[in-house]
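> tool_call: predict_assembly(chains=two)
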Amino acid sequence: MHILKSRPWNLPESRVTPEALVFNRRQAMALGAGMLAAGPAMAQQAGLLPAMRNTRYVPGRAITAEREVTTYNNFYEFGSHKTISPTAQRMPMRPWTVKVEGMVEAPRDYGIEDLLARMPLEERVYRLRCVEAWAMVVPWTGFPLSALLAEVKPLSSARYVVFQTATLPSVMPGLRQTWYPWPYTEGCTIAEAANELSFMVVGAYGKLLPPQNGGPIRFHQPWKYGFKAGKSIVTIRLTDQRPVSFWEKLQSQEYGFWANVNPAVPHPRWSQAQERMLGTGESVPTQIFNGYGDFVADLYTGLQGERLWA
Amino acid sequence: MRLIGLVLLLMAAGLFVMFGTDPLGALLFRLDSGLLSLVQAGVQRYLLPMLWDDVLLPVLEAPAFVAPAVLGAALTGFGWMRARG
Protein backbone atom coordinates (compact mmCIF):
# COMPACT_ATOMS: atom_id res chain seq x y z
CA MET A 1 0.00 0.00 0.00
CA HIS A 2 1.28 3.45 -0.82
CA ILE A 3 0.52 5.92 1.96
CA LEU A 4 0.91 9.67 1.30
CA LYS A 5 1.84 11.62 4.42
CA SER A 6 1.70 15.42 4.45
CA ARG A 7 5.01 16.81 5.74
CA PRO A 8 5.16 20.28 7.36
CA TRP A 9 7.47 21.46 4.61
CA ASN A 10 5.17 20.28 1.83
CA LEU A 11 3.62 23.53 0.60
CA PRO A 12 1.49 24.08 -2.45
CA GLU A 13 3.04 26.12 -5.23
CA SER A 14 0.50 28.87 -4.55
CA ARG A 15 2.08 29.63 -1.13
CA VAL A 16 5.60 30.11 -2.40
CA THR A 17 6.80 33.73 -2.08
CA PRO A 18 7.25 35.29 -5.52
CA GLU A 19 10.87 35.50 -6.56
CA ALA A 20 10.56 39.20 -7.36
CA LEU A 21 9.48 39.98 -3.80
CA VAL A 22 12.28 37.98 -2.23
CA PHE A 23 14.96 39.70 -4.26
CA ASN A 24 13.52 43.19 -4.33
CA ARG A 25 16.18 45.04 -2.34
CA ARG A 26 14.41 48.35 -2.61
CA GLN A 27 11.38 46.93 -0.88
CA ALA A 28 13.56 45.44 1.81
CA MET A 29 15.25 48.77 2.40
CA ALA A 30 11.92 50.56 2.53
CA LEU A 31 10.78 48.06 5.14
CA GLY A 32 13.92 48.79 7.14
CA ALA A 33 13.34 52.54 6.95
CA GLY A 34 9.77 52.07 8.10
CA MET A 35 11.00 50.10 11.07
CA LEU A 36 13.54 52.81 11.82
CA ALA A 37 10.79 55.36 12.10
CA ALA A 38 8.60 53.00 14.04
CA GLY A 39 10.11 52.51 17.39
CA PRO A 40 12.69 52.01 20.08
CA ALA A 41 14.15 48.72 18.84
CA MET A 42 15.17 50.45 15.67
CA ALA A 43 18.17 52.36 16.98
CA GLN A 44 19.64 49.04 18.00
CA GLN A 45 19.03 47.69 14.53
CA ALA A 46 20.53 50.83 13.01
CA GLY A 47 23.78 49.81 14.68
CA LEU A 48 23.95 52.56 17.32
CA LEU A 49 23.72 50.11 20.20
CA PRO A 50 25.58 48.37 21.62
CA ALA A 51 28.23 51.07 21.67
CA MET A 52 31.94 50.56 22.25
CA ARG A 53 32.86 50.32 25.93
CA ASN A 54 35.05 53.09 27.35
CA THR A 55 37.54 51.20 29.52
CA ARG A 56 38.69 54.31 31.37
CA TYR A 57 35.94 53.81 33.90
CA VAL A 58 36.53 50.63 35.88
CA PRO A 59 33.85 49.84 38.48
CA GLY A 60 35.99 47.40 40.47
CA ARG A 61 32.97 45.18 41.02
CA ALA A 62 31.02 42.64 38.99
CA ILE A 63 28.24 43.96 36.78
CA THR A 64 24.81 43.48 38.34
CA ALA A 65 22.49 41.08 36.55
CA GLU A 66 20.28 42.88 34.03
CA ARG A 67 17.15 41.31 35.47
CA GLU A 68 17.87 42.82 38.89
CA VAL A 69 18.48 46.28 37.47
CA THR A 70 15.34 46.28 35.35
CA THR A 71 12.97 44.94 38.00
CA TYR A 72 14.01 46.86 41.13
CA ASN A 73 13.38 50.51 40.46
CA ASN A 74 12.72 53.84 42.08
CA PHE A 75 10.50 55.95 39.84
CA TYR A 76 7.96 57.82 41.94
CA GLU A 77 5.78 58.88 39.04
CA PHE A 78 4.85 55.18 38.81
CA GLY A 79 4.66 54.48 42.57
CA SER A 80 6.97 54.48 45.56
CA HIS A 81 7.52 50.70 45.63
CA LYS A 82 10.25 48.84 43.74
CA THR A 83 8.10 46.83 41.34
CA ILE A 84 6.93 49.67 39.12
CA SER A 85 8.34 48.00 36.01
CA PRO A 86 5.02 46.62 34.63
CA THR A 87 3.29 50.00 35.10
CA ALA A 88 6.19 51.86 33.50
CA GLN A 89 5.80 49.85 30.28
CA ARG A 90 2.75 51.99 29.49
CA MET A 91 4.91 55.06 28.99
CA PRO A 92 5.27 55.87 25.28
CA MET A 93 8.96 56.16 24.42
CA ARG A 94 8.51 57.54 20.94
CA PRO A 95 8.14 60.25 19.82
CA TRP A 96 10.24 61.91 22.53
CA THR A 97 11.67 65.40 22.54
CA VAL A 98 14.31 66.84 24.84
CA LYS A 99 14.19 70.62 25.07
CA VAL A 100 17.46 72.36 25.94
CA GLU A 101 16.68 75.92 26.99
CA GLY A 102 17.56 78.82 29.26
CA MET A 103 20.95 80.46 29.39
CA VAL A 104 22.39 79.02 26.20
CA GLU A 105 23.37 80.60 22.89
CA ALA A 106 21.60 77.96 20.85
CA PRO A 107 18.46 76.60 22.55
CA ARG A 108 17.13 73.60 20.76
CA ASP A 109 14.55 70.80 20.75
CA TYR A 110 16.08 67.41 20.06
CA GLY A 111 14.08 64.46 18.84
CA ILE A 112 15.47 61.43 20.65
CA GLU A 113 16.48 59.65 17.43
CA ASP A 114 18.28 62.79 16.28
CA LEU A 115 20.06 63.03 19.62
CA LEU A 116 21.11 59.38 19.44
CA ALA A 117 22.50 59.91 15.97
CA ARG A 118 24.33 63.17 16.79
CA MET A 119 25.99 62.35 20.08
CA PRO A 120 29.12 60.24 20.56
CA LEU A 121 27.61 57.12 22.11
CA GLU A 122 29.77 54.91 24.30
CA GLU A 123 29.31 52.35 27.02
CA ARG A 124 30.47 53.08 30.56
CA VAL A 125 30.28 50.67 33.45
CA TYR A 126 29.39 52.81 36.45
CA ARG A 127 28.51 52.13 40.02
CA LEU A 128 25.18 53.47 41.24
CA ARG A 129 24.71 54.08 44.96
CA CYS A 130 21.15 54.69 46.11
CA VAL A 131 20.57 56.89 49.15
CA GLU A 132 18.58 53.93 50.53
CA ALA A 133 21.91 52.05 50.95
CA TRP A 134 21.63 49.60 48.06
CA ALA A 135 23.91 49.65 45.04
CA MET A 136 24.39 48.20 41.60
CA VAL A 137 26.89 48.22 38.75
CA VAL A 138 25.44 48.91 35.32
CA PRO A 139 26.85 49.08 31.79
CA TRP A 140 25.14 52.27 30.64
CA THR A 141 25.18 53.51 27.07
CA GLY A 142 25.12 57.24 26.54
CA PHE A 143 27.16 60.33 25.95
CA PRO A 144 28.94 62.89 28.12
CA LEU A 145 26.68 65.79 29.08
CA SER A 146 29.57 68.04 28.07
CA ALA A 147 29.04 66.99 24.43
CA LEU A 148 25.48 68.27 24.54
CA LEU A 149 26.50 71.46 26.33
CA ALA A 150 29.12 72.08 23.63
CA GLU A 151 26.32 72.11 21.04
CA VAL A 152 24.03 74.53 22.83
CA LYS A 153 26.83 76.78 24.13
CA PRO A 154 26.02 77.85 27.71
CA LEU A 155 26.20 81.58 28.42
CA SER A 156 28.92 82.66 30.84
CA SER A 157 26.17 83.65 33.30
CA ALA A 158 24.78 80.07 33.49
CA ARG A 159 25.68 78.44 36.79
CA TYR A 160 23.34 75.47 37.13
CA VAL A 161 21.83 72.76 34.94
CA VAL A 162 18.29 71.65 35.76
CA PHE A 163 16.76 68.37 34.56
CA GLN A 164 13.02 67.92 34.37
CA THR A 165 11.25 64.57 34.10
CA ALA A 166 8.21 64.00 31.89
CA THR A 167 4.77 64.38 33.42
CA LEU A 168 2.34 62.02 31.71
CA PRO A 169 -0.73 61.74 33.96
CA SER A 170 -2.43 59.15 31.76
CA VAL A 171 0.34 56.60 32.39
CA MET A 172 1.92 57.82 35.63
CA PRO A 173 -0.35 57.01 38.58
CA GLY A 174 2.01 58.75 41.01
CA LEU A 175 0.99 62.11 39.58
CA ARG A 176 -2.45 61.62 41.16
CA GLN A 177 -0.75 62.83 44.34
CA THR A 178 -1.13 66.39 43.21
CA TRP A 179 0.33 67.76 46.44
CA TYR A 180 3.83 66.54 45.57
CA PRO A 181 5.98 69.13 43.80
CA TRP A 182 5.80 67.63 40.30
CA PRO A 183 7.47 67.63 37.87
CA TYR A 184 10.45 65.73 39.26
CA THR A 185 13.30 68.19 39.03
CA GLU A 186 16.96 67.73 39.77
CA GLY A 187 20.04 69.79 39.12
CA CYS A 188 23.74 70.30 39.52
CA THR A 189 26.27 73.06 39.06
CA ILE A 190 27.61 73.73 35.61
CA ALA A 191 31.06 72.64 36.80
CA GLU A 192 29.60 69.28 37.88
CA ALA A 193 27.74 69.01 34.59
CA ALA A 194 30.94 69.60 32.65
CA ASN A 195 32.82 66.93 34.60
CA GLU A 196 33.78 64.00 32.40
CA LEU A 197 31.77 61.53 34.51
CA SER A 198 28.43 63.32 33.98
CA PHE A 199 26.62 61.04 31.59
CA MET A 200 23.37 61.22 29.65
CA VAL A 201 22.15 57.64 29.55
CA VAL A 202 20.14 56.25 26.63
CA GLY A 203 20.81 52.55 27.03
CA ALA A 204 21.82 49.75 29.37
CA TYR A 205 23.21 46.30 28.75
CA GLY A 206 23.67 47.14 25.08
CA LYS A 207 19.99 47.91 24.55
CA LEU A 208 17.89 51.03 24.61
CA LEU A 209 17.07 52.20 28.12
CA PRO A 210 13.76 50.70 29.31
CA PRO A 211 11.12 53.02 30.77
CA GLN A 212 11.44 51.75 34.34
CA ASN A 213 15.11 52.77 34.35
CA GLY A 214 14.33 56.23 33.03
CA GLY A 215 14.15 55.65 29.30
CA PRO A 216 14.44 56.95 26.76
CA ILE A 217 16.97 59.30 28.36
CA ARG A 218 18.18 59.90 31.91
CA PHE A 219 21.08 61.49 33.68
CA HIS A 220 23.70 59.88 35.89
CA GLN A 221 26.50 61.24 38.05
CA PRO A 222 28.00 58.16 39.71
CA TRP A 223 29.56 60.01 42.64
CA LYS A 224 26.17 61.24 43.86
CA TYR A 225 23.25 59.38 45.39
CA GLY A 226 20.92 57.96 42.77
CA PHE A 227 17.98 60.29 43.43
CA LYS A 228 20.04 63.10 41.85
CA ALA A 229 19.68 61.35 38.50
CA GLY A 230 16.61 62.61 36.68
CA LYS A 231 14.79 59.98 34.64
CA SER A 232 12.80 60.22 31.41
CA ILE A 233 14.05 63.75 30.86
CA VAL A 234 12.12 66.20 28.69
CA THR A 235 13.79 69.50 29.59
CA ILE A 236 17.34 70.53 30.35
CA ARG A 237 17.52 74.15 31.47
CA LEU A 238 20.58 76.25 32.16
CA THR A 239 20.09 78.94 34.75
CA ASP A 240 21.82 81.23 37.21
CA GLN A 241 19.43 80.19 40.01
CA ARG A 242 20.20 77.17 42.17
CA PRO A 243 17.24 74.81 41.71
CA VAL A 244 15.29 73.32 44.59
CA SER A 245 14.83 69.73 43.61
CA PHE A 246 11.81 67.47 44.12
CA TRP A 247 13.17 65.71 47.19
CA GLU A 248 14.65 68.87 48.62
CA LYS A 249 11.16 70.39 48.57
CA LEU A 250 9.72 67.29 50.24
CA GLN A 251 12.34 66.60 52.92
CA SER A 252 15.21 69.06 52.74
CA GLN A 253 16.74 67.79 55.97
CA GLU A 254 17.20 64.35 54.37
CA TYR A 255 17.83 65.13 50.69
CA GLY A 256 19.93 68.15 49.82
CA PHE A 257 21.22 69.78 46.66
CA TRP A 258 24.71 68.26 46.59
CA ALA A 259 24.05 64.70 47.80
CA ASN A 260 27.57 63.40 47.25
CA VAL A 261 28.15 59.87 48.52
CA ASN A 262 29.93 59.79 51.87
CA PRO A 263 29.95 56.75 54.18
CA ALA A 264 30.86 58.93 57.18
CA VAL A 265 27.71 61.07 56.96
CA PRO A 266 24.63 59.04 57.89
CA HIS A 267 21.16 59.67 56.54
CA PRO A 268 19.01 60.97 59.43
CA ARG A 269 17.33 57.56 59.59
CA TRP A 270 20.06 55.06 58.66
CA SER A 271 23.81 54.59 58.26
CA GLN A 272 25.51 55.13 54.90
CA ALA A 273 28.65 53.20 55.89
CA GLN A 274 27.70 50.03 53.99
CA GLU A 275 25.75 49.25 50.86
CA ARG A 276 23.84 46.13 49.82
CA MET A 277 24.64 44.91 46.33
CA LEU A 278 21.55 44.25 44.28
CA GLY A 279 21.34 40.63 43.23
CA THR A 280 23.94 39.11 45.53
CA GLY A 281 22.78 40.84 48.71
CA GLU A 282 26.44 41.22 49.66
CA SER A 283 27.15 44.08 52.05
CA VAL A 284 30.21 46.11 51.08
CA PRO A 285 31.74 49.29 52.50
CA THR A 286 30.63 52.50 50.82
CA GLN A 287 33.41 54.74 49.50
CA ILE A 288 33.56 58.50 49.56
CA PHE A 289 32.29 59.93 46.26
CA ASN A 290 31.24 56.34 45.57
CA GLY A 291 34.86 55.62 44.67
CA TYR A 292 35.11 58.40 42.07
CA GLY A 293 37.02 60.89 44.22
CA ASP A 294 39.95 61.09 41.81
CA PHE A 295 37.60 62.47 39.15
CA VAL A 296 35.50 64.84 41.21
CA ALA A 297 36.97 65.78 44.60
CA ASP A 298 38.46 69.01 43.24
CA LEU A 299 34.98 70.22 42.28
CA TYR A 300 34.31 70.86 45.96
CA THR A 301 37.39 72.70 47.12
CA GLY A 302 36.34 75.90 48.81
CA LEU A 303 32.80 74.64 49.40
CA GLN A 304 33.31 73.41 52.96
CA GLY A 305 30.47 75.62 54.16
CA GLU A 306 27.98 73.73 51.98
CA ARG A 307 26.11 70.60 53.02
CA LEU A 308 27.92 68.47 50.46
CA TRP A 309 27.00 64.99 51.61
CA ALA A 310 23.26 64.52 51.90
CA MET B 1 -21.32 56.22 68.96
CA ARG B 2 -23.72 58.99 67.97
CA LEU B 3 -21.61 61.47 69.89
CA ILE B 4 -18.44 60.46 68.00
CA GLY B 5 -20.41 60.70 64.76
CA LEU B 6 -21.60 64.20 65.59
CA VAL B 7 -18.07 65.30 66.51
CA LEU B 8 -16.83 64.00 63.15
CA LEU B 9 -19.63 65.84 61.34
CA LEU B 10 -18.70 69.03 63.13
CA MET B 11 -15.07 68.45 62.20
CA ALA B 12 -16.10 67.96 58.57
CA ALA B 13 -18.03 71.23 58.64
CA GLY B 14 -15.01 73.00 60.12
CA LEU B 15 -12.69 71.57 57.48
CA PHE B 16 -15.08 72.65 54.74
CA VAL B 17 -15.25 76.18 56.10
CA MET B 18 -11.48 76.43 56.53
CA PHE B 19 -10.18 74.58 53.48
CA GLY B 20 -13.09 74.30 51.05
CA THR B 21 -12.52 71.47 48.60
CA ASP B 22 -8.74 71.14 49.10
CA PRO B 23 -7.75 67.46 49.03
CA LEU B 24 -6.93 65.81 52.34
CA GLY B 25 -3.52 64.88 50.92
CA ALA B 26 -2.70 68.51 50.14
CA LEU B 27 -3.71 69.50 53.66
CA LEU B 28 -1.51 66.84 55.25
CA PHE B 29 1.33 67.83 52.93
CA ARG B 30 1.05 71.42 54.16
CA LEU B 31 1.20 70.24 57.75
CA ASP B 32 4.22 67.97 57.19
CA SER B 33 5.73 67.76 53.71
CA GLY B 34 7.59 64.53 54.42
CA LEU B 35 4.79 62.61 56.14
CA LEU B 36 2.89 61.27 53.15
CA SER B 37 5.94 60.14 51.18
CA LEU B 38 7.08 58.24 54.28
CA VAL B 39 3.67 56.60 54.79
CA GLN B 40 3.34 55.86 51.07
CA ALA B 41 6.74 54.18 50.94
CA GLY B 42 5.91 52.16 54.06
CA VAL B 43 2.54 50.98 52.74
CA GLN B 44 3.70 50.24 49.19
CA ARG B 45 6.97 48.55 50.09
CA TYR B 46 6.05 46.62 53.21
CA LEU B 47 2.31 46.01 52.89
CA LEU B 48 0.75 46.13 49.43
CA PRO B 49 1.14 48.68 46.60
CA MET B 50 -2.57 48.41 45.77
CA LEU B 51 -3.54 49.31 49.33
CA TRP B 52 -2.12 52.77 48.70
CA ASP B 53 -3.29 53.18 45.10
CA ASP B 54 -6.81 51.84 45.49
CA VAL B 55 -7.76 52.54 49.11
CA LEU B 56 -5.72 55.29 50.75
CA LEU B 57 -5.04 57.46 47.70
CA PRO B 58 -8.73 57.95 46.82
CA VAL B 59 -9.29 59.13 50.41
CA LEU B 60 -6.35 61.54 50.15
CA GLU B 61 -7.51 62.81 46.77
CA ALA B 62 -10.97 63.66 48.07
CA PRO B 63 -11.68 67.02 49.73
CA ALA B 64 -10.49 67.01 53.34
CA PHE B 65 -14.02 67.22 54.77
CA VAL B 66 -15.26 64.09 52.96
CA ALA B 67 -13.63 61.42 55.12
CA PRO B 68 -14.91 62.76 58.49
CA ALA B 69 -18.27 63.60 56.91
CA VAL B 70 -18.82 60.07 55.59
CA LEU B 71 -17.56 58.43 58.77
CA GLY B 72 -19.52 60.85 60.96
CA ALA B 73 -22.74 60.31 59.00
CA ALA B 74 -22.31 56.53 59.15
CA LEU B 75 -21.68 56.50 62.90
CA THR B 76 -24.53 58.91 63.60
CA GLY B 77 -26.95 56.90 61.47
CA PHE B 78 -25.85 53.59 62.97
CA GLY B 79 -26.12 54.96 66.48
CA TRP B 80 -29.55 56.36 65.76
CA MET B 81 -30.76 53.01 64.41
CA ARG B 82 -29.38 51.16 67.41
CA ALA B 83 -31.07 53.62 69.78
CA ARG B 84 -34.42 52.95 68.09
CA GLY B 85 -33.84 49.24 68.68
